[in-house]
Amino acid sequence: MEIKHSQTETKGIFEAIEDGLKVGEMTYSKAGTSKIIIDHTQVDPSQNGKGVGKKLVNAGVAYARENGLKILPLCPFAKKVLTGSEEYQDVLS
């Protein structure tokens, strides 16, 4: 599985690609220069239980760490992943 990241001046998206097909996505909005707000995570039902959503969140965390950003998870799934483990505390807003 490949995770692709693209962004504009105010928004971004991480897409999970499997065999050339998009099987999941996580979107975010930029809040100033130091924070991103994860607002949506969606995974194709055929991929349920394969960890696609968590891989998307982890890609967002890696991006935040590389760029010195904090994450505000408004998406219920991302919030559950990020607040459910000590390993993500450094990026939580």
From TrEMBL:
Gene3D superfamilies: 3.40.630.30. This is GCN5-related N-acetyltransferase. Transmembrane segments: none annotated. PROSITE patterns: GNAT_YJDJ. Pfam families: Acetyltransf_CG. PANTHER family: BSR4717 PROTEIN (PTHR31435:SF10), PROTEIN NATD1 (PTHR31435). InterPro entries: Acyl_CoA_acyltransferase, Gcn5-rel_NAT, GNAT_YJDJ. The lineage of its organism: Bacteria, Pseudomonadati, Bacteroidota, Cytophagia, Cytophagales. It comes from the Bacteria. Residues 6-93 form the N-acetyltransferase domain.
